[in-house]
Automatic annotation (TrEMBL):
Top-level division of the source organism's lineage: Eukaryota
Pfam families recorded: BetaGal_ABD2 (PF13364), Glyco_hydro_35 (PF01301)
The protein's name in its UniProt record: beta-galactosidase
Domain Beta-galactosidase jelly roll: 896-996
Length: 1053
């Protein structure tokens, strides 16, 4: 009988699974009476302003590339720096920024929304408009971004059970109460964003609004995401007068929330957004991969294996096929990547710094990744991050410490790294050829091949309206992923001259391993020259006075240019010309910087080749004017051509309203070269250039070079003071340890203090304190230090897990023998236990994980060895975040801002050392900015606080927490950026206050506390800190100059 029953079960089971899948699918579709159509972008009303097809966006009818970078205003606590950072985005070639708007940053308590000072969103969007930057607005409500609770306010965690509608990890159920709070946020933030929409404001910047963040529709093809969640938020957005397109970002290309035809029964109830976007993170740092299991991780960065090219190829080279394969609107909208990896973050308990992260990826990674997605037809992409910033205060979640440098294009302290300089070369190319590059199709049978494998990616052809059939310009994407790492190879080009038979000729090419470039082919210059193919990288095209064309190329004696027909070449570059076939002429140049002029008998003008050395290319800036932002008298027909090109200095921004170049240059940068695409004002006087003696190229010598010698960036630290936190004078309240912890009391940032007292009556000769907590604890018994430990894990489900829920939270405890610290048995005075617990941050509720309520503070504690009659009563104290203007600017110690008595000290902490029995000791000192006020407008000299010693510290700069230091090894950071906008200059002194405690005695000679400049690698341009080396006697340090930039305005009228 068993066999027939089993057979019957096996017959029914598939049908049951199908039925369950259909139920799950339909249950995810939801039932709110909100349709895709009523939330869709109104093309009939706004299409003349903003529209799209499968290729790109159209802004005022103009095909437009969206070259965007992520910017986190909430990671820049000094608003005065927003402008200077965003100007560096413009200098890098970006025309757009993506902005997360952080709910919790603006709302410390229910019903309170702050949009002033450093949270002034209206100011930020006005700034973007003044800088001619489009904005992709991402108001969440969930933003992730390695922020506490993924950007949700702490009070929301207390109010609702299902944050992000999660019942538990991997399953959602729509929660109207949670949606009501999300609506409250949208109704406060969206009206501000709405004022800046391109569709409603003349000169508005917001071109699209993102709904939610990294929200799966399906996970491994299993229905997961709630369509009602998207419905509700989209409808609220429209009700708040958001009328630009809505988009979301799949965690990867999974086809989530695409507008689909309702004629398919399986699509009924489906909700989709206007534009389909997906994120791409490609290669991860070996020690901090986001994988749920991280056993046997190689901690030492010197032992990391290089990233594998095949991982990049596997991740990126099928994007177009996969995205278009989703069909429906995904096949009709631009390929859009709201987050394209531009580095990686780091976390606690690791040995490496962001300098190691930078070295792992190298200078060319971001450009290579970007050009790889361009090869897939992507015309909308945003690099995450371009500038990372700082997890000042407690902004960051458990997965990130103070620095959020991200090894990004712009380093934390403002340096433009080689990664930006490399990326800018690629951006300059596509922007200067945007009239052809914005709309392309993949060529099924490319006309090029190579002599070695894995150097040629694919080829695309321009399909712009002004391109005739058969004359399509070709863009060939080269990327050296060759296993033998050969930099030199042959490119074989198939070409047919008129009615003649097709022939194949070869060109030499030079391309370093793990780098890329886009080669130009089948292109006719404005002068009439026909370029068949170029293996010499062209980094920039300039149309000069509508007559001549200029190409900027690297000094390269390997790459070649193949022209149709006979050409003549003159200039100071020495050419080599060889003829192939009937009329193919191949030109190459010697390995020097200079210029060449190329003409043919039929040319209407000149093609100029400007060969720049690497040091000049790394500073190549091109000033592009988007037609949308251009003044009415500008010639928008050649908007793809830059109006001004410069090289020679690290940062250039063009203030078009005042016609002024804002320049920043370093010690070794003495002059700037300026190329004008149109004749400059007669009032402008510059020198001619000896290497490029052309009428449209000028040179300006700088004269302020000697100013930095007057600055010594190691100020004296004076007026030291100290005090100790008196635990007895804090305001304690009794709690039930099992049910009333830090989150319930809104003690969610920084530290929490616990206290229990018990009689001196023991039942055993040994008394043990057992404690299970998150994430760090420091224990004192009767005023004496007992010990401390950290509970943190990179493993999913494990105690202190940085990602995902904890299933084994009971395993995170530790037992301490406290016998020697107790009062004698029978003593009348009670014992006092103080436990200082630090919370590294609330988990961010990422993807499918329901982890924002992972335990914090003390989970459980017990004291063994006391008599049975002993009942432990616990008290708690901390800082109630609801009472703060900014819930992230607190150490959690209640007396941090109280006006208490300080002890003056002739010497500082490095003379006294740190004694664990002192408990929490506060140190304060003052210093004057080493740069005199008279230099403030012409120099920028960023400072850092350097700490060494096995102690823990929260660091306040003029009242703002700018760092958290863990000298015991819990964190690798020792250098803390002192934000320029928080510093005072001139006669005003700056104050640094340090909250200090330690798990071991730290001797004075082991401690370093000093302020100095950023001594960095300004040769390779990585921006990495140079570790100060010592001489033979171990006492003398070699002199290393700090990075200082000079600022100068160059009027062009």
């Amino acid at each position: 009988m068993v066999i027939p029953e089993l057979a019957a079960l096996l017959t029914v089971l598939p049908a049951g699974l199908v039925a369950f899948y259909v139920w799950l699918l339909q249950s995810r579709k939801g039932s709110l009476p909100i349709t895709t159509a009523e939330c869709a972008y109104d093309k009939n009303k706004y299409g003349d302003i903003l529209n799209w097809d499968k290729f790109c966006l159209y802004i005022h009818g103009k095909p437009t590339l969206i070259i965007s970078g992520e910017f986190h205003y909430f990671r820049v606590p000094d608003k005065s720096r927003w402008e200077s950072i965003l100007k560096k985005y413009r200098a890098g070639g970006f025309n757009c920024v993506r902005l997360y708007f952080h709910w919790g940053y603006h709302s410390p308590d229910e019903g309170i929304y702050n949009f002033d000072d450093n949270r002034d969103i209206d100011y930020l969007l006005n700034l973007c408009e003044s800088l001619n930057l489009y904005v992709l607005a991402a108001p969440g409500p969930y933003i992730c971004a390695e922020t506490q609770a993924g950007g949700f306010p702490f009070w929301v965690l207390d109010k609702v059970k299902r944050v992000r509608h999660m019942s538990f990890t991997g399953f959602k159920k729509y929660d109207p109460e949670f949606s009501a709070y999300q609506k409250q946020w949208f109704e406060n933030i969206l009206p501000i964003i709405a004022k800046h929409q391109i569709t409603t404001k003349q000169g508005g910047c917001v071109i699209a609004v993102q709904i939610e963040n990294e929200l799966f529709d399906k996970v491994i093809k299993i229905p997961y995401g709630l369509h009602d969640e998207m419905r509700f938020l989209s409808k609220v957005a429209r009700d708040c007068e958001i009328n630009v397109p809505l988009f979301t970002n799949d965690p990867e290309e999974m086809g989530s929330f695409i507008i689909k035809s309702s004629s398919n029964p399986l699509n009924r109830g489906n909700f989709g957004l206007d534009l389909y976007g997906f994120d791409k993170y490609i290669v991860f740092v070996p020690a901090s991969s986001p994988t749920p299991w991280a056993f046997n991780v190689v901690q030492d960065p010197k032992k990391w294996k290089p990233w594998k090219p095949k991982d990049v190829a596997k991740s990126l080279d099928v994007l177009e096929q996969k995205t278009r394969g989703f069909g429906y609107e995904a096949a009709k909208t631009p390929i859009f990547i709201p987050e394209l990896q531009g580095g990686w973050f780091s976390t606690y308990k690791l040995q490496h710094t962001f300098d190691d992260v930078y070295n792992f990826y190298g200078d060319a990674f971001t450009r290579t990744a970007y050009e790889s997605v361009l090869a897939q037809g992507c015309t909308m992409a945003s690099i995450y991050m371009v500038y990372g910033g700082t997890n000042w205060g407690t902004v960051g979640d458990v997965d990130g410490y103070t620095s959020y440098d991200y090894s990004a294009c712009i380093r934390e302290y403002g340096y433009t790294s080689s990664r930006m300089r490399e990326l800018r070369l690629g951006i300059n190319f596509i922007r200067s050829f945007s009239d052809l590059f914005t709309k392309t199709e993949r060529v099924k049978n490319p006309n090029v091949s190579t002599s070695i494998k894995n150097v040629f990616n694919l080829q695309r052809k321009s399909v712009m309206k002004n391109v005739k059939l058969g004359d399509e310009v070709l863009f060939s994407f080269f990327r050296n992923f060759n296993e033998q790492q050969n930099p030199v190879f042959q490119v074989y080009v198939k070409y047919k001259e008129g009615q003649r038979r097709e022939q194949t000729f070869s060109l030499r090419c030079y391309l370093q391993y793990k780098t890329s470039f886009i080669a130009l082919g089948n292109y006719t210059t404005i002068t009439g020259l026909k370029l068949i193919f170029s293996t010499l990288p062209i980094y920039l095209r300039v149309i000069q006075d509508r007559v001549n064309e200029i190409w900027i190329v690297p000094v390269n004696d390997v790459g070649e240019l193949a022209f149709q027909g006979e050409v003549t070449v003159d200039g100071n570059l020495i050419p080599s010309i060889r003829k192939v076939g009937h009329a193919i002429h191949i030109v190459s140049f010697n390995d020097v910087g200079g210029f060449a002029r190329i003409r043919s008998a039929d040319s209407s003008g000149d093609l100029y080749i400007l060969a720049l050395r690497n040091e000049s290319l790394s500073t190549l800036h091109a000033i592009f004017e988007e037609p949308y932002w251009a003044k009415t008298n500008n010639d928008t027909n050649i908007s793809h051509s830059p109006s001004i090109v410069t090289w020679g200095i690290q940062d250039v921004y063009f203030d078009s309203s005042n016609s002024v170049l804002e320049t920043q240059y370093g010690d070794q940068e003495h002059d700037i070269t300026i190329l004008f695409s149109r004749e400059p004002s007669k009032h402008v006087r510059f020198q001619s250039h000896p290497t490029y003696p052309l009428p449209f190229i000028s040179k300006k010598q700088f004269t302020a070079g000697e100013k930095t010698s007057e600055i010594h960036l190691v100020p004296k630290l004076v007026r030291w003071r100290s005090r100790i936190t008196d635990f007895n004078n804090l305001e304690w309240k009794i709690i039930d340890l099992k049910n009333g912890g830090p989150v319930e009391n809104y003690y969610a940032s920084g530290h929490i203090l616990y206290n229990t007292r018990f009689s001196s009556n023991y039942s055993s000769s040994k008394v043990y304190l057992s404690i299970n907590m998150r994430h760090r604890c420091t224990i004192f018994v009767n005023g004496r230090f007992v010990g401390g430990h950290t509970t943190f894990s990179r493993q999913l489900f494990f105690p202190g897990s940085k990602n995902g829920p904890e299933l084994f939270k009971s395993l995170g405890g530790k037992k301490y023998d406290i016998t020697q610290f107790l009062r004698p048995n029978g003593d009348e005075e009670k014992n006092s236990v103080i436990i200082l617990v630090e919370n590294w941050g609330i988990n961010r509720q990422a993807v499918i994980f329901n982890d924002c309520r992972n335990p914090r503070g003390i989970i459980s504690s017990n004291i063994d060895g006391l008599i049975k009659e002993t009942n432990l009563t616990w008290s708690i104290c901390g800082v109630d975040l609801r009472k703060l203007d900014n819930p992230f600017n607190t150490s959690g110690i209640p007396d941090e801002n109280k006006n208490l008595e300080w002890n003056e000290s002739e010497k500082g902490i490095s003379s006294y050392g740190v004694i664990p029995n002192d408990g929490i000791k506060w140190w304060s000192f003052r210093f004057s900015h080493p740069m005199e006020s008279k230099f403030k407008d012409i120099l920028n000299a960023p400072l850092r606080l350097v700490l060494q010693g096995a102690f823990t510290s929260y660091i306040f700069l003029n009242g703002t927490i700018i760092g958290r230091y863990y000298g015991n090894g819990d964190c690798a950071q020792h250098d803390y950026y002192l934000m320029d906008g928080l510093l005072k200059f001139g006669d005003e002194e700056n104050q640094i206050t340090m909250m200090v405690y330690s798990w071991e005695t730290v001797n004075p000679e082991e401690i370093i506390v000093e302020i100095r400049g950023w001594e960095i690698d300004d040769v390779k341009k990585t921006g990495n800190l140079i570790k100060l080396k010592k001489g033979v006697d171990e006492d003398i340090e070699f002199e290393v100059k700090p990075w200082i930039v000079r600022k100068e305005l160059i009027p062009l009228t």
